[in-house]
Amino acid sequence: MPDASYLALALGVTVAITLALRAAPFGVRKAMADSDLLADIGRWMPLGAVVILATYCIATIDFSGTAHGLPEITGVAVTVAVHLWRRNAVVSILAGTIACLVMANAVVPG
Q1: Which member of 49, 70, 73, 78 has the lowest number of beta carbons within 10 Å of its beta carbon?
Q2: How far is CA 35 from CA 26, 45, 46, in A?
């Protein structure tokens, strides 16, 4: 077991680094307020995150399984259709999730 002073020092360094990293965006906010790069990142980051998550989820579909990926494909299709219809992310995600869960639970394994 390490010495108590070593653990206290390690904990102190960890806390200091964490606080500095959490405070850094607020410290440079004023300096970067007129940055075109920051505006572009703010505009494209949410879409990029969604595309990466959707690609990962679709890539992990098991087409050789019992359902052959039908619940997941149905969920994606319902999400896209509801979003094009309502233009509401919460409603479309909720509808797609419900459709996927209903389809996944309707398929009887075996």
Answers
A1: 49
A2: 15, 15, 18
